[in-house]
Amino acid sequence: AQKITQTQPGMFVQEKEAVTLDCTYDTSDQSYGLFWYKQPSSGEMIFLIYQGSYDEQNATEGRYSLNFQKARKSANLVISASQLGDSAMYFCAMREVYGGATNKLIFGTGTLLAVQP
Amino acid sequence: EPEVTQTPSHQVTQMGQEVILRCVPISNHLYFYWYRQILGQKVEFLVSFYNNEISEKSEIFDDQFSVERPDGSNFTLKIRSTKLEDSAMYFCASSDRGISYGYTFGSGTRLTVV
């Protein structure tokens, strides 16, 4: 069964510093996608970045990059130049591809990031 | 940018009452989902809907829950007889046929059962 593990319940980072949020996953499927979502205190889920299992290059979206190490089954999120507005809960999620009927996301338990001035 | 719209944003209901949570997915998306997040916990899959039928449901999605796409645009989640433990944030999401980031969440409905 697929599983997402986020081992850091909480993290602190100084403003303007970079921070890495860890995510490891477990799947027997060869084709899958990995996602990171941000959930601010207001509650909505904001898509940040996506990495496909066959993508050879690490995904980047502005200040967000995904450090994808397939052999280690890890998909860590790197936020560069942290801003106060980055303070939020961050969820790693995975989506397997099989038959196309479901494509549900499986989420980790999240990491609460606090950016300090 | 296309959005998934959920109404209401907050709902308070008495235990035992029926609630209907409403969602308008992105119009050209084919897959529809409901997820639940109990306060402070992770986001849990409830049900997926494709081709006008449930394609998968979790063990949370028992006989008290049902989903419907009544008119080709709305996608609803009904809880027949709410329990205290149904209090949570409920997210609707939709996605296109691809595996990539065509997967959009609504802003959620916070359900409080008293």
3D architecture notes:
- The complex is a heterodimer of chains A (117) and B (114).
- Chain A is mainly β.
- With 114 residues, chain B is an all-beta fold.
- Chain B contains no helices and eleven strands.
- Chain B is globular, with a radius of gyration of 13 Å.
- The N and C termini of chain B lie far apart (36 Å).
- The interface between A and B is medium-sized, with 26 and 27 residues.
Largest interface: A-B, 26 and 27 residues
Distance, first to last CA of chain A: 41 Å
Q: Label the structural class of chain B.
A: mainly beta
User: Quick one: how many beta strands of chain B?
Assistant: 11
What percent of residues of chain A adopt helix (DSSP H or I)?
Answer: under 10%
Order of helices and strands of chain A: EEEEEEEEEEEE
The major β-sheet of chain A equals: 6 strands, mixed
Mean pLDDT of chain A: 92
Strand segment tally of chain A: 12
Features:
heterodimer; A: 117 residues; mainly beta; four-stranded antiparallel β-sheet; 12 strands; globular; B: 114 residues; seven-stranded mixed β-sheet
Summarize the structure.
Chain A has 117 residues and is mostly beta strands.
Strand-helix topology:
The complex is a heterodimer of chains A (117) and B (114).
Chain A: E1 3-5, E2 10-14, E3 19-21, E4 24-26, E5 32-39, E6 46-52, E7 60-61, E8 64-69, E9 74-79, E10 88-96, E11 105-107, E12 111-116
Parallel strand pairs in A: 2-12
Antiparallel strand pairs in A: 1-4, 3-9, 5-6, 5-10, 7-8, 8-9, 10-11, 10-12
Chain B: E1 5-7, E2 10-13, E3 19-24, E4 31-37, E5 44-50, E6 53-57, E7 65-68, E8 75-79, E9 88-95, E10 103-105, E11 109-113
Parallel strand pairs in B: 2-11
Antiparallel strand pairs in B: 1-3, 3-8, 4-5, 4-9, 5-6, 7-8, 9-10, 9-11
